[in-house]
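To whoever is on call:

I kicked off a structure prediction for a single chain this morning and the downstream step that reads the tokens threw a length-mismatch warning. I double-checked the sequence; it's 305 residues and nothing unusual in it as far as I can see. Pasting both halves so you can look.
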Amino acid sequence: MTGHGQRTPIAVVGPTASGKSALGLALAHALDGEIVNVDSMQLYRGMDIGTAKMPLVEREGVPHHQIDVLDVTEDASVARYQREAVTDVEDILGRGKTPILVGGSMLYVQALVDDWNFPPTDPVVRGRYRERLDEIGVVALHAELAAVDPAAAAVIETNDPRRTVRALEVIELTGRPFAASQPPIDAPPRWGTRILGLATDPDWLNPRIELRTRQMFDGGLVDEVARLRESGLVADSTAGRAIGYAQVLAHWRGELTAEEMVERTVTGTRRYVRRQRSWFRRDPRTVWLDAAGDTVGQALESLDS
């Protein structure tokens, strides 16, 4: 609830391991809210340890939406997520509650907070880029994307063939950069959403990333991936390319030692964090909080102003 007493969604964004989930839960308690997940990998059932998904017992009775809605054999889609999450937010508002949008998946955040109309698809154009993908591989195709649209390449993982193909398809169909289909970054956010970002210093965040990663492996991440593999998890899938899960699968293929598996997960997370920082920092609508301080107090003070 804002200072005027009107229910308004609150978005909590920022890099991995910055404390978004804890802040979101505290705000849900303080503002009579419900959580809407904006982490693309937490959409998947069974991907719990490696995504730092909050266990049910720790949610303290606060409803969480857009968690555990996909099987690992399904591809996560920003457009599908947008449709379903918008419905969740409007249902929460309709019941007089406060939607708390929590996550760091960059395109998913923008698709929910902004009224983003996705360009159409063309099976012929997409098929041509898929053939090109089969011919030269994802790394080379991503390099071709970087040559025509460096901004798109900067926010799409090098090893993500589906989004690389989609970006090239959109560029060809529209004749414009991929980002041109996105709404203006300074436009009023959907529902008047208040956007709170967690600002992190690398010297503070990097040790947290390493500690959390090692706790994930000590806590059973490898066993979790083994269970998911029995449910259809493969390396060449959206879920199988998730940080941590991809490294476990590579270890089983003999490409990484056990220690390299952990280290590559740490370095992959840090690389992803750099992209998150760059993406979220460009949004002038975000009010930044010191992640190392009293984030709940800072958030409530900001929302009351």
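Update from on-call: the warning came from a stale cache, not from the record. Cleared it. Sanity check on the structure: Residues 1-5 have pLDDT under 50 and may be disordered.
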